[in-house]
TrEMBL record:
Pfam families: BTB
Name under which the protein is recorded: Putative BTB/POZ domain-containing protein-like
Pathway in which this enzyme or protein is active: Protein modification; protein ubiquitination
SMART domains, per database record: BTB
Segments forming domain BTB: 443-526, 576-657
Length: 776
């Protein structure tokens, strides 16, 4: 198992192990049996943690062995006892590793049902208040206020304190992934869960006190502060109506019993951060606690008004604007050390981040708090008579939706925009595609509304963005590019599909829906929103329905993408009106069901290429023979063409092999991986694709930076393609090696003027580094 764990430290290794993982998973689950020695159990737990590091790995193992692995985790979290108020070292090690593995509740899936079924709430409560059955039983008959007083007597036990951060994280993840109709009584004792919520709310209040003590220079234990605050936040914003209402009620009661009002202190922390004064800026820990706490306070009616009266909306808006100018990217491990596992710093080849907030937790929690306040306040009065400030704030929120790397901030930015009358999910593609609504030239579908003029739209866009608007037979039919299409792409658009819509669909609602389909967002008043809810539900646009209904974003939900890649699949060929071939591509090894072309090719769509590329737009409008041709030869190799089309359809440039797989490639294979990007650099410059050119250039430079020996081949290729900026960079990387290379055979393949460029770069390198220069 140690060997498997070592292999699973690599993301690629994990994928390989799980390709046929039934045997491995069985060994792993068997090792967690409590009859095994502690050392075997610990190695089994650590192997499971490695294999389930990502959502993909977790999902694969859950499909293979869901209930057994959950039962094993719960058993190991339950089997412990105190000896003279102490816990044996081996038992603590098992508990820590089992709790770490229980954090698979971070991922959505069937395992949540089995955790509740196995009584996870009872297990977590025991880890909080200790091994006192008497205490647990006595709490059942007490009022909430009496429970709080009783729990304070046992809450500060130090024996199990190292486990508290894990307990709060597990509780938070479980409640964040519940269904709307979830009720604790479905799986166990309601009182146990409620007591657990009371404990979390007590820890929440303590976390505010802790942040104050730290800011005043007092030493205190803070390891559970951030996890406890986060757990309460996740319960308050849980999809479960029961959990959300219960958490809000209990937190209000705990705060009232404590008799302290921390609103002023929390808001002062944010004002200090966004004031621009470098002195007195609170620590990142204090900012995280302040923002999380404000997000919780803002959800409690009793305190919500208090926050607003203290200028909470303006303070949070200013903080978000400050963050934009001074982005603070924060790893959670810096404020919650328990997330660092036994393997931290030793893994490789995993996705950079799959967390909802990523490194932007300050931004996310600020947006959550602000969204709740704006939802409560009359949002029509926000930024009243401050149109410039309102416009700037909307631009900031749209920028988050378009360019932020993490789903959490993007969802909440869209949620706040909703309260400002802008609905949907802004994207870079959406900005480009909005103008297609008025383009009838490439439209191939006609939507017929009762007593209204027909609306011309594009089938491929409906196929990807809203297939419910297309008749089923249109989705199933298969278009064949026979000899009649051979020369003329215009004939592909000659057939117009007519779709008659229900009499209940009005023109205004349809216009706004199409605006959403084409651009990702739209502006609308409340009366129109009511109509759009019904239409969006019928069209099965769940993300839009959630936004229109004003539901809080569910923690962990991916942000809706504006990606047309699925249009390249067989169903998308029905709407294709052009074929792209690479200039240098071999014969096809796959039969294309849509045509008889014998070389590698892609069926694409003018309407998707049109907004993204000025060169192709001009070509299609030129009236020249090429503008009517069904086939366009692109002057790149096949691999480059595939990457180019991916860029057009998704806005993302596929990256080369990386990590361990890259490290183990030969020099020739690495060059084969890199060469398509050099080709695309040249094509992007010719086709006026500035963003693509910049992406390719940076990618090539980043690879040459770590593999400088590839520069000698890349410099000649770049020169052949007139990429002189890339030639200069490659020459810089070769300059320290010039005196060695000039006497080797590697220079024989280079043009003389390139050797001269490298020599000149070598002279400059020597001068910069104070070396003796040899001019010959």
């Amino acid at each position: 198992m140690q060997l498997f764990s070592a292999l699973a430290l690599c993301g690629n290794g994990t994928n390989k192990l799980l390709e046929d993982g039934e045997g491995l998973v069985k060994i792993m689950v068997d090792s967690l049996d409590s009859s095994n020695p502690y050392s075997v159990q610990i190695e089994g737990l650590r192997l499971a943690q490695c294999l389930m590091t990502s959502e993909q790995g977790c999902s694969k193992i859950i499909k293979l062995s869901c209930e057994p692995i959950v039962k094993a985790i719960i058993t190991l979290m339950s089997k412990w006892s105190l000896d003279a108020e102490k816990l044996a070292k081996d038992q603590m090690s098992i508990l820590v590793e089992a709790c770490r593995l229980a954090l698979i509740t971070h991922w959505e899936g069937d395992h949540h049902f089995y955790f509740w079924k196995a009584g996870v709430d009872r297990v977590l409560l025991r880890l909080i208040i200790g091994n006192s059955d008497t205490t647990q039983q006595s709490l059942h008959s007490l009022s909430l206020q009496e429970q709080i007083i009783k729990l304070e007597e046992v809450f500060d036990t130090d024996v199990l304190l190292p486990l508290r951060p894990y307990v709060w994280d597990i509780l938070g993840c479980l409640t964040a992934n519940c269904m709307e109709d979830f009720f604790p009584k479905m799986h166990g004792n309601e009182t146990v869960f409620n007591v657990l919520v009371v404990c979390a709310c007590m820890a929440f209040v303590d976390s505010i006190l802790t942040s104050r003590q730290i800011s005043q220079g007092n030493a205190c234990h803070s390891s559970e502060s951030e996890p406890a605050s986060r757990a309460v936040l996740m319960m308050i914003y849980s999809p479960s109506k029961y959990i959300s209402s219960k958490a809000r009620f209990i937190l209000s009661e705990v705060l009232a019993l404590k008799g302290k009002d921390y609103v002023g202190y929390l808001l002062d922390s944010l004002k200090a951060a966004s004031s621009g004064n470098k002195f007195g800026i609170p620590s990142n820990f204090r900012l995280v606690i302040s923002l999380t706490s404000l997000a919780c306070y803002s959800a409690l009616p009793k305190y919500q008004k208090h926050v607003i009266q203290h200028g909470g909306i303006n303070i949070l808006s200013s903080f978000i604007s400050w963050w934009f100018d001074n982005p603070v990217h924060l790893n959670r491990s810096s404020v919650a050390p328990h997330v660092q596992s036994h393997f931290s710093g030793r893994t490789c080849c995993w996705p950079s981040s799959e967390d909802w907030e990523g490194e932007d937790m300050l931004l996310l929690f600020g947006l959550v708090a602000l969204a709740e306040l704006i939802n409560a306040e009359d949002h029509c009065g926000i930024f009243q008579n401050q149109m410039e400030l309102r416009a700037a704030f909307i631009r900031d929120l749209q920028e988050i939706c378009i360019n932020n790397s993490y789903s959490g901030p993007r969802w909440y930015a869209a949620y706040i925009l909703r309260h400002l009358g802008l609905y949907g999910f802004p994207s870079k593609f959406g900005r480009e595609f909005r103008e297609l609504l008025t383009d009838n030239e490439h439209s191939d579908v006609e939507l017929i509304i009762k007593n209204q003029e027909p609306v011309r739209v594009h089938g491929v866009i409906l196929l990807v963005r809203c297939p419910s608007l297309l008749p089923p037979e249109e989705l199933l039919k298969e278009k064949v590019f026979d000899s009649s299409y051979k020369q003329d792409s215009d004939s592909c658009n000659s057939i117009i599909t007519k779709v008659r819509l229900s009499a209940h669909v009005d023109c205004q609602s349809l216009t706004k829906l199409l605006e959403y389909i084409y651009s990702g967002s739209f502006e609308a008043g409340e009366d129109l929103v009511k109509k759009l809810k019904i239409l969006a539900k019928h069209c099965n646009l769940q993300s839009l329905v959630q936004l229109l209904c004003g539901s809080n974003p569910k923690w962990g939900t991916p942000f809706p993408s504006f990606d047309f890649t699925s249009a390249l699949e067989p169903a998308g060929r029905n709407f294709s009106d052009i074929i792209l071939e690479a200039e240098t591509s071999g014969p096809s090894n796959q039969d294309c069901s849509s045509c008889s072309i014998s070389v590698l090719h892609l069926h694409v769509h003018k309407v998707i290429l049109w907004p993204s590329c000025e060169y192709l737009r001009a070509l299609f409008q030129s009236g020249m023979q090429e503008s009517h041709s069904l086939t366009i030869k692109v002057p790149v190799c096949w691999d480059s063409l595939v990457k180019l089309v991916s860029w057009f359809y998704s806005g993302e440039l596929p990256r080369p092999i990386s990590g361990c797989l890259w490290d183990n490639l030969s020099k020739e294979d690495k060059l084969r991986e890199l060469e398509p990007y050099v080709e695309l650099c040249s094509l992007a410059q010719f086709w006026l694709l500035e963003d693509l050119h910049e992406k390719c250039f940076r990618l090539i430079v980043s690879i040459l930076d770590s593999c400088q020996y590839l520069s000698i081949t890349i410099i000649q290729m770049a020169a052949n393609l007139n990429q002189w900026k890339l030639v200069e960079v490659a020459a810089e990387y070769l300059s320290p090696m010039y005196h060695h290379l000039r006497n080797s055979s590697e220079f024989d393949a280079l043009d003389e003027h390139l050797i001269e460029i490298i020599r000149a770069a070598s002279v400059q390198f020597s001068q910069r580094n104070g070396h003796l220069v040899t001019l010959t």
